[in-house]
């Protein structure tokens, strides 16, 4: 292939890259998307949050997704023992979308990728980034290798790294750093459910807390398949012996709620294990580039924040690049890092407090406090930038405070 020049090189054709490239296309900015794999391809992160619907709508990608008739996600259910905590996205503190979807990511990502191609975005699959260099202006020259071994170069004024778990620029520019979250791992697969329960029971996404630190996700899809996976401390996952399928079968026994429903179903693929998955970086941007989605920071999947951060950061980066290329001044530290990290910090608090047990105390305390529940529901819907919500603005202390009040109440009762 011949060398090419564009305004923006986007690495990765997942949700972040598609939202970014679509926004740029709509605003007259040329881009080139390179994707190492071929679509459709399997990837984890199958539960969305209502907040990302804003991004699909703004980028002009909503209609193609609506047409797919994915399973509606109008809330989420958390189970612990015999206590059920239901969150309804229609009853949340922050105005916004009251539903989203549960999606097989192979189909979801492929739909988005086909749509940006249809819109005229230049996308190349099976093309891998092998090297990158930046000049003093932040303009880049990126070496791309095709599957047949040929190489070409892309010159760009800006790079958006939406490579997800590939973390291309973090690897090439030595930007990785350890996550502050505990070392957890996940094991997961899909099953076909020909006799799925009728009504909401058969379609609702559920997080079954099987121990204080480990939980099972159950995510039904509209195609009749269901994603199931356990998350917990790495030593918990490693304590089970045998093949991944044997481990998964044994682990299902600790879910008293779902064991009978799932025990006789065949796995559609050998369960995958991802160990110590939480990631972080030294910085979210540099001169001539921005990191988005999982390329920047990946938290725990317990609150399904992955795709939402991917699309939030993808469209934010695209907006700022559009301003900069149109001659406007952009404060990347404030408008990108500062903004994105506000949301990351809120979710990091909730993930951390989930595993300390404080958030679980609030979820499973009875009677429920409806105001607290609506405010937390807005967080779980992805509206983590709304500082009218006390559980956003004061996230770093409010969860602890409410949990402490519950402890004091329990002490009085006992």
UniProtKB/TrEMBL annotation:
Coiled coil: none
Domain FAD-binding: from-to ranges: 6-225
GO molecular function terms listed in the Swiss-Prot or TrEMBL record: FAD binding
Domain of life: Bacteria
Gene3D superfamilies: FAD/NAD(P)-binding domain (3.50.50.60)
PANTHER family: FAD-BINDING PROTEIN, SLR1998 PROTEIN
Protein name: Flavin-dependent dehydrogenase
